[in-house]
Amino acid sequence: MRTAEFDVIVVGGSYAGLSAATQLARARRRVLVIDAGQRRNRYARHSHGFLGQDGSEGAAIAAEGRAQLMKYPTVRWQEGAATQATPHDGGFRVTLADGSAHHAQRLVLATGMADELPSIPGLAERWGSSVFHCPYCHGYELNQGRIGVLATSPHSFHHAMMLPDWGTVTLFLNGAFEPDAEQLGKLAARGVAIERTPVRAVSGTATVALQDGRATELDGLFVLSRLHSASPLAEALGCEMEEGPMGRYVRTDMMKATSVPGVYAAGDAARMAGSVAFAVADGAMAGAASHQSLIFGLPT
Ligand code: FAD
Ligand code: MG
User: Fold this and answer.
1) In the prediction, which pLDDT does 2 show?
2) Which residues line the pocket of ligand 1, CB cutoff 6 A?
3) Distance, CA 166 to ligand 1 centroid (Å)?
4) Which of 171, 206, 223 is where one domain is finished?
5) Residue 241 in this model has a pLDDT that exceeds 60
6) How far is the CA of 249 from the centre of ligand 2 (A)?
7) Closest ligand to residue 279's CA
8) Range of the domain at 195
């Protein structure tokens, strides 16, 4: 184990991975960050709700984090995708798409999630500019305007109940579910209008065209995307997963340790719903926990 090239390999060099690597770098540990450069929020220019960086560009927050990290002499950065991670000599061997491989005692997976949107023409093109999932991230900028919620599952009831704090809301059921009488009462009490005609397309800023030819002009449209692990590494390593309402994510304990000893997971990849703030917090925990496990050992 002493012969490992790195103490820790962090896969994913966005908010969670950068935060984990920063803790390890500050302990003068040898860290390799492998990153494919596909931040989940790359579709949105500005990021909101992260303390001290509210309204900054998502890319700028990550770039500054990376620049600060790379000042530490024990950190290496490798662009590219990690395609395989396997137990090796008491640690882990990580292989990249280009065939190169690296060995470390611990692994932090900060690989994020990928969003799957309903296949409605015009929707994907507006993702991050006028089509969003997170009201806290992008609701305020709609200035109490006209907001749509495009239902994708019964969980969209919760979405529709929240959004009246950000504007005037229409819930487009689009055949995804039918609220029961109690839910209809609650939606009515929140002032939510309900539209049952299926959605045909989205155009303009966020104009929703219906199958019957009618159209509703909106300032923004919210949709709960289906979430998929952006990388199969955790599952391939045998990490237990958690079934969330939007998709499966890696199960971790409070220290961000997965069910596989020596493997930690942080950020969107390991929580039901994510944000930059949560990713940074989880990353800090995974960084500190993986570091301390190098000193005190792993649970047996
Ligand atoms: P990510 O930022 O998704 O980064 C994961 C990184 O891992 C990527 O660079 C990826 O390329 C890399 N990676 C994955 N697999 C591999 C592999 N096998 N090998 C190498 N690298 C790999 N949150 C906010 O707080 N405020 C906002 O305003 C906001 N706006 C958003 C807007 C949109 C449109 C979306 C979709 C999300 C938004 N979010 C926002 C959520 C935010 O993007 C995520 O919570 C955050 O990016 C999670 O950080 P992360 O480090 O866990 O993952
Ligand atoms: Mg990351």
Assistant:
1) 52
2) 11-17, 34-41, 43-44, 47-50, 81-82, 110-112, 115, 127-128, 134, 137, 230-231, 233, 267-269, 274-277, 279
3) 24
4) 223
5) yes
6) 14
7) 1
8) 118-223
